[in-house]
Amino acid sequence: EAGVAQSPRYKIIEKRQSVAFWCNPISGHATLYWYQQILGQGPKLLIQFQNNGVVDDSQLPKDRFSAERLKGVDSTLKIQPAKLEDSAVYLCASSLFWNTEAFFGQGTRLTVV
Amino acid sequence: TQLLEQSPQFLSIQEGENLTVYCNSSSVFSSLQWYRQEPGEGPVLLVTVVTGGEVKKLKRLTFQFGDARKDSSLHITAAQPGDTGLYLCAGERSKLIFGQGTTLQVKP
After folding, report:
1. Pairing of strands B102-107, B96-98
2. How far apart are CA B91 and CA B83, in angstroms?
3. Do B43 and A91 count as a contact with CB atoms less than 8 A apart?
4. Is A1 a residue whose pLDDT tops 80?
């Protein structure tokens, strides 16, 4: 069974530029999460989808971050414009339902300079 | 405010020593999960505890869920260098919320 796929693995951009991350969850998984993880810290939930609907986006900085999950499968997370403090690893995870095991991708490491 | 507090945040020990990591909250969770994360990888699930007072063992790792389902602990017996990594607890309350993690370094 293929795992959660994320791309790109690494991205370096200048502040005020825009960037997009892509996630392909495990087939059949209804729940998809985007997390932000600062080095050495625990992941912070940015947004949770159930199929193509948003369940929770309370910690998503909506003035600069946006996410969508078209057709309830793939998802993209966008940052526009990026700030230095956005430097982090962005993790995508999926699970069959909201209360079952979450499987994580390898993440995208973003460096904003 | 951190909903799940892990302690200690950093731990450096010698091979063969025992250790315990704690995960505490003032909130009740329907379940609590423990993950291990290695550099450059996403977290990988170790165990899920659901019932208050539940104890689960995974080789040298013992996980316990508090009676009130607000806290949990992870105990490692005779730690090995391969146990080195970031240990994360995560509580389930319609969404998965992580603690800040415990970085464990086991020296040979």
Report:
1. unpaired
2. 22
3. yes
4. no
Alpha helices, H only, B47-100: none
CA gap B56, B73 in Å, rounded: 11
B72 φ, ψ to 5°?
-155, 160
Structure letter (DSSP) for residue A53 = E
Cα–Cα distance, B94 to B108 (Å, whole number): 41
For the cut 90, the answer to whether the pLDDT of residue B3 exceeds it is: no
Q: Which residues of A17-44 are buried (b: 16+ CB within 10 A; e: fewer)?
A: eebebebbbbeebbbbbbbbbeeebbbb
A83 touches chain B (CB under 8 A): no
Task: Decide: A105 and A90 in contact? Cβ < 8 Å.
Answer: no
The two beta strands, A108-112 and A10-13, are parallel
pLDDT for residue A3:
94
Q: What are phi and psi of B41, to 5 degrees?
A: -125, 165
Q: Which residues of B touch A (CB under 8 A)?
A: 4, 6, 30-31, 33, 40-45, 48, 86, 88, 92, 94-101, 103
Write the secondary structure of B43-98 as one string of H (helix), E (strand) and C (coil).
Answer: CEEEEEECCCCCEEEECCEEEEECCCCCEEEEEECCCCHHHCEEEEEEEECCCEEE
Q: Are strands A53-56 and A65-68 parallel, antiparallel or unpaired?
A: unpaired
Per-residue pLDDT averaged across B89-105, rounded? 91
Q: What is the pLDDT of residues B27-57, one digit of tens each?
A: 998 889 999 999 889 999 999 999 999 999 9
